[in-house]
Specification:
- The chain contains 6 helices and no strands.
- It has 153 residues and is mainly alpha-helical.
- The protein has a domain of 101 residues.
- Helix 2 runs antiparallel to helix 3 and helix 4 packs antiparallel against helix 5.
- The longest helix is centred in the N-terminal third of the chain and has 44 residues.
- The protein is rod-shaped.
- It starts with 5 loop residues before the first helix and ends with a helix.
Length: 153
């Protein structure tokens, strides 16, 4: 005796439902996505000041090196060196240095320099206001290099 086939009995295959779609996302996926975006935003917000400070630092260093390359000692050039040193101080996070002038600026500069550079520093600051400065640019260069190294640390 033969067994009846499923078609003879009137049976049909079981139809499975479609696989669930990945869209719309479940609420837990939205929470995870929101937290990820929030963390990314906070990281970028925290890094932004450092990136801007480095950008200002590099621009001021390029300006300082451009002035150094010219090799002339003119009152205008000495004033430019002073401006660039101030920009580098502000770019490294010493915002209080921006309005400083005279003895305050000298104290700020000499605070980070060795004592042997104090006389060079005083000569440099005095030569800013002379018509024809009598100062060696190489001394200013080495003094400012030491100051920049101490400022970068």
């Amino acid at each position: 005796m033969n067994a009846p086939s499923p078609q003879d009995l009137g049976l049909h295959d079981i139809l499975l439902p479609l696989q669930p779609s990945w869209w719309p996302l479940p609420w837990s996926a939205w929470v995870a996505l929101g937290m990820t975006l929030l963390m990314l935003g906070l990281i970028l917000w925290a890094i932004r000041p450092r990136v801007l400070r480095r950008k200002r630092w590099r621009a001021a260093l390029r300006e300082w090196q451009r002035i150094r390359v010219s090799g002339q000692t003119t009152p205008n050039q000495l004033g430019q060196i002073n401006q660039v040193l101030k920009r580098l101080a502000v770019a490294s996070g010493h915002i209080e240095a921006a309005p400083m002038t005279g003895s305050d600026w000298e104290a700020f500069l000499s605070h980070r320099l060795p004592s042997e550079d104090a006389t060079i520093l005083r000569q440099y600051l005095a030569s800013l206001y002379q018509g024809a400065p009598q100062i060696d640019l190489t001394e200013i260069d080495t003094c400012s290099k030491r100051w920049l190294r101490s400022l970068a640390c």
